[in-house]
Amino acid sequence: MEVVRDDPVNNKNIISWSNEFRAMLGFNDENDFPNIINSFHNCLHPDDFERVTGAIAAHMMDTTGKTPYNIEYRVIKK
To answer: In tens digits, what is the pLDDT along the chain, a chain of 78 residues?
Structure first.
């Protein structure tokens, strides 16, 4: 993942999605599900969005390594 300076949930952050992950969500390839975090954001259930993006940010911004990212969430498949 390539993070825009100090903003781990920026929609333009580049992330490499596996073809298996794309397939689980009903997408075919990078054209269908681009390698940016916004692709994931668009699939998050609206009721889970703030909680999940907050957990991602907290985990990635913690320089101590003590904030785990262990969270369940719902996604909306294609």
So the answer is: 788 777 888 888 899 999 999 999 999 999 999 999 999 999 999 999 999 999 999 998 888 989 988 999 999 999
Q: How far is CA 67 from CA 19, 27, 50, 76, in A?
A: 28, 31, 17, 26
Largest distance between two CA atoms of the chain:
37
Q: Which amino acid is at 25?
A: L
pTM here? 0.80
Residue 52 CB neighbours (<10 A):
20
Q: Which helix (H) or strand (E) holds 58?
A: helix 49-61
